[in-house]
Every structure is written in structure tokens, then in C-alpha cells.
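User: Could you check the structure of this?
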Amino acid sequence: MKIKICGLTRPQDAILAHELGATELGFIFCESPRRVTVLEVEKILSHLPKSVNTVGVFKDSPLKVIIDSIDHLSLRSIQLHGNESVAFVQELKQKRPAIMIIKAILEKNGAFLQDHAAFDQIDFLLFDSAEKKLLSSEVETTKPFFLAGSLNNQNVRSMIQKYRPQGVDVSSGIESSPGIKDEFFMRDFFSAIKGII
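Assistant: Sure, the predicted C-alpha cells are below.
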């Protein structure tokens, strides 16, 4: 199972996530308390092996901004977290065919805001809540997907058992404050999912 630690802002958090076995390290380039710049991410990555899987998170960003970030940081994956269209995803895939594309599908008021079945060019879906709560809708897809939305060390086991995702994505659930990961919360999160993946 993939384990994505997202919203990283400090080298020490990224290093610990990598050491604990995170398969993806996520950096947010859109409006967020965890927003980072390309330069900041470059500094964080200088402390890590070049083999780490890096994910750049964007929300309705111009294609050129995404492409420039991919090229400058050698990002392995892109997560699109806004209202990006199927055509936008196709153009990104055409321009950078090696990049893994994750498309976030948000749930609000018990319904998904986009038709995830339409995104046939993506590699992974990511089902998230737009309301700072656990996902509640049924998930029916043949695509591999990440589960996100208010996950923490207390609920991640039950949510994995309920949805059987191919990956989990956590950010605020392992923080002491926005962008600051808590070592003990992070260790507990990894411990909580051992034995069921």
C-alpha cells in the first residue's frame, strides 16, 4: 500500500516520513497553510535521496506553472486538487507522459463534486472530503485510489478496512500545528497500519 505524507514544510519531517516508509512525499504549491515554494522544496529535497517519490499538489494552476515545477524539482507525481478538466489532464499527460497523475475528487454534502469515471488518463484517484471530516460516500471505481480526509492514527485502520484503498494520504492528522508534523503522531500513524497492508 502507498503511504503519502502530504503538506511537508520542514526537512526533518520529510526525512522522518521517508525513514518510516512513506512511499510518497507531498508538497503543496497552492493556497494552504502548508504552502511551500519551489525553492523551499529544493532545500528540503537536498536532505533526501534522489530516489524519493515527490508529489507536487496544485489546485487550478496554469499548466506552465505545473510543468516548470516538474522540471525544476524532478517531481515524480502531480496531484490535481481543483476543478481541472479531463482535457487539462490529457494535455499534462501528453507534455509529461512519465509523470504519475493523481486526481483528487472531493466529497461535499455526501456527494462527489466531479465525475471520477471521466478521468481515464489519470494513474490514481484520491478521494477526499471538502468538509474536514471523514469520507462517507461509497467508492465505486476500477482505478487505484488514495483515501484521504481527516485520517489519523485513531481511524486509519478502520477506514482502510472499510474502503480497501491502494493508498492513504495524511496531512493534518499527524500535525501539532499546520505544516508542522508531530514525530509521535507520525510514528503512531505508521504503527496503526502495520499488519493490515
